[in-house]
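Question thread 4412

I'm putting together a teaching handout and wanted feedback from people who do this every day. The idea is simple: show students a protein as raw sequence, then show them the structure tokens that encode its fold, then repeat with a second protein so they can compare. Below is the first pair exactly as I plan to print it.
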Amino acid sequence: MSIPSDLKKELEEAFFFFAYDKDRKISSKEVGAVVRSVGLNPTEAQLKEMMNEVDRAGGRVDVPAMTRILQGRMKEQTTSHDELRDAFQVFDKNGNGQVSVHDLKHSLTTLGERLADEELDELVREVDQDGEGQLNYEDVVKVLLGK
């Protein structure tokens, strides 16, 4: 899976901002800021994996190298999207594509890779815009995967 051209352009702009050196490379410590600045929302574990890849590549990467790293992550996310959607279907008691905020909080703070309370509150604010306490889990999956 290739990176969309608009994301690649945003990545180039982020590198221009974050890569202060003439070589236009970022260090592993800057990966999180760069990735999040282009609208992606990796988990801490995914971020650590990306940082490790940068470290293995000599500790600094340019746009093409970071693009390759992100392409690998995007392939993984295709599977992750389906897996996350399937996981939320378990909590969809009515079969209507909705999950309650309570069930979402329980699943994301106790099962699998846990979200911090602040991250979870931000997610609920973003997805539960009507405040009814029922979330479309496709929207939740999109936010979790940074799409």
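The second pair follows. I'd like the answer to focus on this one:
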Amino acid sequence: MRGGVDANTRRPDQFSFKDHGSATDSFRASLRAIQKKHDWAAELLKNIDSAEFRKEEKLLRQSVDRLTRKRSHTIAGFADKQSDRLVRDTLVTNTTILREGNRILGDLTIDKLSSIQTHAEQISSSSSSSLRLKTPSISSESEEDNRSSIPFPRAPASKNQPLVVNPPCTEETPLKGLVTLKEDNPAEEQAKFKDTVGAFGCLNQPTTWKSTDGTIDLLSTFTSFLARRPRGPFIEHEYVADLSEGASFLNSLSGEEFSVALESQPATPLLVTNWSTVTEVFDRVLAPEFGFEEAYLAARKESMLDPVAEFVHSVLYSFGTYLQVDKSIPHSLNEREAFADITWPIIRGALRLAGIASRYLEVPIQGVDERKNAHRNLINEPKAHTHFADGVGLLDGGQAYLAEASVLFSPDPRKRHIDEYKLKRALRDTLISQIRRIAEESVPPSGTSVFGSTSFADKTKYYRLDFCGAFRLVQVGSMTVPITDSNFGGRMRRCLTSALDFAALIMQEKKQREGARDATMKERHEFARACTKIVRTTASPAAKIKKPQE
């Protein structure tokens, strides 16, 4: 011991692959020892020996060097230096491969990693029988939007449990920066969430999700699905039952459950109920055979005293910035240009017809801000940064609609997954925020909802989220914006119809809130107490709390 510190314990900046030679050799040795017992080990060994993997080895080593310099952790040493190197390299290599080499190595499950680690321990013990593997630990200092490129393995809860490593980034979860590093205790989390369910019940929200005859309990189905879901950046771990297009939970339902899940949503109001001239204006301006020029000329002939005609004209005027000059939208538009000139005029115009105020371009999300700072003492602790939305819709000053968008052409597929995860989690925070806001003066209407949209390339999906014992998210519509002059009239008509259907749902929510009964003072106290019991449910770790400098 030197100065109270174990001589075998090394600082992160002293540890790298350069110190220990080829770490992949020990990893290969572990795989060879178990390849006869496990078919996946033989396949994995074959992939590691490929030329493509050797090209990646330099990148893997550089990544671990960056990791060990960045993370404030210590790695316990061993009495025997050779065993020390072997096991250390094996652990770090396994973790690195899991994140950076997933394209080559495929899906390494926790069980597979545990098998490899067990063999590494056996190799270690053969050199020194008195050695005992100690796993590295990390602090919970990572930000919620952690930007570390590689998650370091988390210390297990007990010595007998295998090392826990975040799952690899796959097509379903390419959420770099959203991986949780906290200790996972699903049973404890579910117990805490029961308090949230009780709080929502006190706030006049439904806490059951069953078919009309009560034979199908979708809440129990979701609970079972959640128990089987691997830990990682899945929106279900935020207690959001995702019923959007292609969602894993929706696809896991049986035929009867599928029908019940989608039939449990309120019907979309007829457009003619809110805007009597919509069909006539669309027939005159957006005929299927019209190109942009014909549609725009017809829109200019309409009376701007008709709000529907004004809406159509405003959208076509924005498209005319590009289509009057060329026959297609330029591929060079950046994200903000495409959203502001193409997608947002449609959504904003529909919201305006519905009497919904809106803002756009990097608007702070109130619900996320409240959630991230709920447990902070802002007198002596810094305020955590909130997330930002590309667009919002406002009801009585509160945010009831959030929008996320990407570039119109050749977007990064990873951004779609990240935006959808971010939007769905933010909608959960927004619903909690909105119910708290309503409960300050009124009894929150049963089934209070918030809304959102994600725009990826030329397609926009519309969502509605409410609470029914879990946060229930349903895709209520979609639209595909026309980006060329071909069949412009018919495609734009479908696009505007979908936007108006979505706006009609928000307008229906607005009317429901306006009709809410005023709460008595006793009810306000009960609501305020219930709001304090809505626990924070995010699966991401909390940001480090720093004391301000004096």
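Top answer:
Good format. For the second protein you could add a caption like this: The longest strand covers residues 471-480. Residues 405 and 438 are 28 Å apart (CA to CA).
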